[in-house]
Design goal:
Blueprint: H1 2-10, H2 14-30, H3 49-55, H4 58-64
Helix pairs in contact: 1-2
Length: 70
């Protein structure tokens, strides 16, 4: 879903977003920006979507904005 979201934000397909990510990531790592990544919190520390939406209801608007037409 991350590539699909990026594609929607930038007006490209998820495939194109993935292609750009694969091209740019090595450049960022070479530039030393890979230290800006947050560590994976691990499965036990990930919050459930229902908890996250309850704590941050504004996210529901963002998530809903990317719904696909039927």
């Amino acid at each position: 879903p991350t590539l699909e979201t990026l594609g929607n934000l930038f007006g490209v397909s998820d495939t194109t977003a993935g292609r750009y990510i694969r091209r740019i990531l090595p450049l960022l790592e070479t530039a030393g920006r890979d230290t800006m990544r947050r560590p994976d919190p691990g499965r036990k520390r990930r919050r459930h979507l229902s908890d996250l939406l309850q704590e941050t209801p504004e996210l529901a608007l963002i998530i809903d904005a990317f719904g696909k037409p039927a």
